[in-house]
Design a protein that fits this description.
The complex is a heterodimer of chains A (501) and B (503). Chain A is built from 18 helices and seven strands. Chain A is mainly alpha-helical and 501 residues long. Chain B is globular, with a radius of gyration of 24 Å. Classes of the chains: A mainly alpha (501), B alpha/beta (503). Chains A and B meet through helix 14 and strand 1 of A and helix 12 of B.
């Protein structure tokens, strides 16, 4: 014979719970005056209290389903007790939440939905407690627990759902909307409404990226907006919109365009984490060095909301950071290729043959070559010395030398040739044919050569060609005009006397 | 360039030159002979300098020649610079900065508010405003304002970027010229051309990397310091060439001395210099040895490079040159011939733009017009000629003075004066650039309606220098030289690349 349960006391506690729930609704729906100091203090316990209903109610549901699936036999009263305690905790947590909101700094849809979900948890938990009560009573009277009714099951499932929703929305308020989704695979992230992060490297024209929208706001979103955003604007400061950044907060403006050192935002971010004014507070992860560098740079360049990457002057530090993001430089043509740096011994040998070598930048693979002497140019020895660095030759200056069509054969070995000076040489149309297939050639200087109109088809077929100089060559005015017509945008210079370009 | 890099270079220079000259007992003489035999490789260096490949071993040549081409920080947009310095500060208000409002105010007393807290070089009391002493027209497709004093430049307006809001810290000629060329108003800093050759080397080892050409009645006010090498090794200083007579003084062998004897003489001097260096270790002695060698090589190519008579008649007509005379036109044509041969930096100075109005030669209505006539045709021809030769693309041409001039009339004597002039003004003036990586047909910066203060797009002299170095492939903050315990650079502690004008 089971010990009889204290129905009377069980009933009393349930009535008290119902009264508490009604009071909670009153608190939520009736307009209140200024929150008292005690209420404000209680509100700060919301982040602590919310974990109690989650633990207790999930524990109760777990036990319930544990039984249902036949893994064990936890006594029904134990499950009911957990639900009961969970209901009290849910009411208390919701109450604290209302007090926290009353303390100010919160607003927007995120908070509203979280509040609705929290109230739903409290309400459903109380409902389940009463359903449990009825079931327990029946069960005790009939020795065995009564079967679970459909409404009881439905309420339990709704309670669980409300718990998940309220918990997730609350987490978003605390950690920011992207916190959970951040490391999820793409499609799942989109499903959860996380912002699709821009994959910089795949952007076709990184120069057109807006500095603020692409580099600054995402960092603020990740590090600051959970407290300074639409749902919560501590210190009346919102960092989620340009308007918010301009307006500042209760302590005044936070950015001074052009002067990062005078900007409160930068000062707070720069402070050591132990300083009481440091942002973000409480040891939360702040802006990374890279993010802070970009933020300061954006302010220094005038805090414009439209400035694009290509128009902003980069400091060496900023270039370094941008390179890390894969958008530091905007290489095109041969500079976008992955050409190995030249062999330095080969350059030394080349230099020793009388070809002057200029490297096109300390971290650039390419070199510029120029014959030191006009009468010793592209000898077999020099050509052999060019061979080991053929892939690295970008600029070749043979102007005014004795080079002829046969000597120009070397060009066929230079796949990455970009600029070619042949002015004042003995080159003819025959030599120009060797340029076929130089897909990166942008500049060809043929002034003062015997090249004629029949070379123009070769030039026309060079895809990257931007400028060609034909003054004092054998090319006719009509030929030049035809070339201009067929290749709009190509600079075809035939000299000042002939009407310029 | 860091200190170890610099020391390594000096050490290499020392070791290899001694090695080179020691191995060949006849020194330069043998080298000269080798040149005649076509064995250029004896001369050719093994080092590529900043690329870190310079080694003393290996080939026969002298490594780490300070003038060998080296690696810039990034690919250069301009391989060469021609700087046309109009010494004395030409008036922007008569050439480019058109101010109709100033014409309206002509003759009125300058409001006190404009004078408060200002200092002028000569103006005292309350001066009168002076309207533009020129008629202006919009030129080219870009519609740039250019006065009728520069009809030829107007023809190439679409090649030019105008910097309308240049400003300087200095309002006296010598310090302002020093600031423009060395980055500091005081003596002792290397000039822009020296920095360029220090960083990039030269492409033609038979010519100096940095050449200076003077015209006009006087030297620049700051003297040769505006093209000196400061604390850089003196091999980087500007070599002044004359446009009449021997281009470089004492370059021809004296009568009765043939080339071989010359070589032996130089070798003897070099031996004494080397002994002296072994004793005292002064790196300048090494520079001296290198300079003798350069001079010896220059004997081969300079007379040819400087021979204007070689140019066809129509080129002379284009530039307005008269071979055998010293003129800005001759120097402009020389500049083209030099950059064509791989000279890195050519600095032209044309004196006489200081239009105070105290006398005819310095009056806006007399001497100033002469200066315009002397320079306009040649400067425009230089741009057009470089362009048709396909060289403007990689040659940067810069034009300007050390500061600008006031919108107020300067009347020093206070009496009736047939001559009009303006005082020094450093807060806004116009310079222009063309070619080598700057925009075509573009104007940057704006001044107020009387041309007294810059309104937008201000460009400080240091910004201009940072931009020129940028176009040459250098980060101006990283092209440094250690001196007196710290790294120095052309732009000292300031300078911003004017990205807005980059093509």
């Amino acid at each position: 014979m089971p010990r009889s349960l204290p129905y009377a006391r069980m009933f009393t506690t349930r009535v008290l719970l119902a009264i508490a729930l009604v009071a909670l609704y009153a608190q939520a729906l009736l307009p209140g005056g200024d929150a008292s100091g005690l209420a404000l203090l209680f509100g700060r316990f919301h982040p602590l209290l919310v974990h109690l209903p989650i633990g207790l109610l999930v524990g109760a549901l777990g036990l319930f389903w544990w039984n249902r699936l036949g893994f064990g036999l936890a006594a029904a009263p134990a499950v009911a007790t957990l639900v009961h305690l969970g209901a009290w905790a849910a009411v208390a947590a919701a109450w604290a939440g209302l007090d926290l909101e009353a303390g100010g700094g919160y607003g927007g849809d995120g908070v509203l939905y979280h509040k609705i979900a929290g109230m739903a948890v409290a309400t459903l938990a109380v409902a389940v407690v009463f359903l449990d009560y009825g079931r327990l009573r029946q069960g005790i009277e009939g020795v065995h627990t009564a079967p679970v009714t459909r409404s009881h099951k439905l309420a339990s499932l709704l309670l669980f759902a409300a718990l998940v929703v309220a918990g997730h929305l609350g987490g978003n308020l605390t950690h920011g909307p992207d916190f959970l989704a951040e490391h999820m695979p793409g499609p799942l992230r989109t499903l959860l409404g996380g912002s699709g992060r821009v994959a910089f490297a795949s952007i076709e024209d990184p120069g057109s990226l807006p500095v603020y929208a692409a580099l600054v706001q995402p960092a603020l979103d990740a590090r600051c907006v959970s407290c300074h955003g639409a749902s919560q604007a501590k210190g009346k400061l919102r960092l989620d919109t340009p308007e918010g950044l301009i307006a500042g907060g209760t302590n005044g403006e936070v950015i001074v365009a052009g002067q990062p050192d005078a900007s409160e935002l930068v000062r707070r971010i720069r402070l050591p984490a132990s300083h009481e004014e440091a942002m973000p507070p409480d040891g939360r992860a702040g802006l990374s060095v890279a993010e802070a560098t970009l933020l300061e740079w954006w302010i220094e360049t005038g805090a414009s909301f439209d400035l694009t990457l290509q128009d902003a002057e980069q400091t060496p530090q900023v270039s370094f950071v941008l390179q890390g993001l894969g958008i530091g430089a905007f290489p095109t043509g041969i500079y976008a290729l992955d050409t190995a740096p030249p062999d330095s011994t080969a350059l030394v040998r080349l230099e020793a043959t009388g070809i002057s070598v200029l490297r096109l930048g300390e971290s650039e693979a390419y070199v510029s070559l120029r014959c030191s002497r006009s009468d010793v140019c592209l000898t077999p020895e020099q050509v052999a010395a060019i061979d080991p660095v053929a892939a690295q030759v970008a600029w070749l200056d043979l102007s005014g030398t004795d080079v002829d069509d046969a000597g120009l054969a070397v060009v066929e070995r230079l796949p990455h040739l970009e600029r070619l000076h042949l002015q004042r040489t003995r080159i003819t149309d025959e030599g120009i044919r060797r340029l076929v297939g130089r897909e990166y050639l942008t500049y060809v200087n043929l002034y003062g050569t015997a090249v004629t109109d029949s070379a123009l088809s070769v030039l026309e077929g060079l895809p990257a060609l931007e400028s060609v100089y034909l003054w004092q060559s054998g090319v006719s005015v009509e030929g030049a005009a035809r070339l201009r017509e067929r290749r709009p945008g190509l600079l075809v210079d035939t000299g000042a006397a002939a009407g310029g370009q | 360039m860091t200190r170890p890099e610099h020391e390594r270079r000096l050490a290499l220079q020392a070791m290899t030159r001694r090695h080179f000259l020691g191995t060949f007992s006849t020194g330069v003489g043998a080298a000269a002979l080798a040149t005649f035999l076509g064995a250029e490789r004896v001369f050719a260096g093994t080092g590529t300098g900043a690329t870190g490949t310079g080694t003393a071993g290996g080939s026969l040549g002298a490594a780490a020649d300070p003038l060998l081409p080296r690696a810039p920080h990034f690919a250069p947009r301009a391989k060469r610079v021609i700087f046309l310095h109009m010494a004395g500060a030409p008036s922007q208000l008569e050439l480019f900065d058109y101010k109709p409002e100033l014409q309206r105010l002509n003759g009125q007393l300058c409001p006190e508010s404009l004078l408060e807290g200002k200092r002028f070089a000569f103006i005292k009391g309350v001066p009168k405003m002076l309207g533009p002493q020129a008629t202006f027209r919009r030129r080219g497709q870009s519609g740039a304002w250019i006065s009728d004093h520069l009809p030829h430049l107007a023809e190439v307006a679409d090649e030019i970027t105008f910097l309308k809001a240049m400003h300087s810290d200095q309002f006296n000629h010598a310090p302002a010229q020093l600031l423009m060329h060395t980055g500091s108003p005081r003596l002792g800093r290397p000039s822009m051309g020296s920095w360029a050759v220090y960083g990039l080397g030269t492409e033609n080892r038979n010519l100096p990397g940095f050449v200076v050409l003077l015209s006009g009645a006087n030297q620049p006010d700051a003297g040769a310091s505006v093209y000196g090498s400061g604390f850089l090794p003196t091999i980087y200083q500007g070599v002044q060439c004359r446009s009449e007579g021997d281009p470089v003084l004492f370059l021809s062998d004296p009568e009765g001395v043939d080339r071989e004897e010359r070589a032996r003489t130089i070798e003897a001097i070099a031996r004494i210099n080397r002994e002296h260096h072994a004793e005292v270790g002064d790196p300048e002695i090494l520079t001296r040895i290198a300079q003798y060698e350069l001079a010896f090589r220059m004997q081969m190519e300079v007379p040819d490079a400087m021979n204007l008579a070689e140019e066809p008649e129509w080129v002379h007509a284009m530039y307005g040159t008269e071979p055998g005379k010293t003129s800005f036109a001759n120097n402009s044509l020389l500049a083209r011939r030099l950059v064509e041969r791989g000279v890195r930096f050519v600095n032209l100075f044309h004196w006489g733009w200081d239009s105070h109005g105290a006398g005819a030669s310095e009056a806006l209505n007399v001497g100033f017009l002469d200066r315009c006539r002397e320079t306009d045709r040649a400067a425009a021809a230089l741009i057009a000629d470089l362009k048709q030769r396909g060289l403007l693309d990689e040659t940067l041409v810069v034009w300007g003075g050390e500061f600008g001039r006031t919108p107020m009339l300067e009347n020093r004597s206070g009496q009736d004066n047939p001559f009009v002039g303006r005082d020094h003004h450093n807060e806004c003036y116009t310079m222009w650039m063309a070619g080598g990586g700057v925009k075509r047909g573009f104007t940057w910066g704006e001044t107020d309606e009387i041309g007294y203060q810059a309104v937008s797009g201000r460009v400080h002299v240091h910004d201009l220098q940072a931009t020129i170095l940028h176009l040459l492939g250098f980060d101006h903050e990283r092209l440094v030289f250690p001196f007196q315990g710290r790294n120095f650079r052309l732009t000292d502690v300031s300078g911003r690349v004017v990205r807005e004008i980059l093509a």
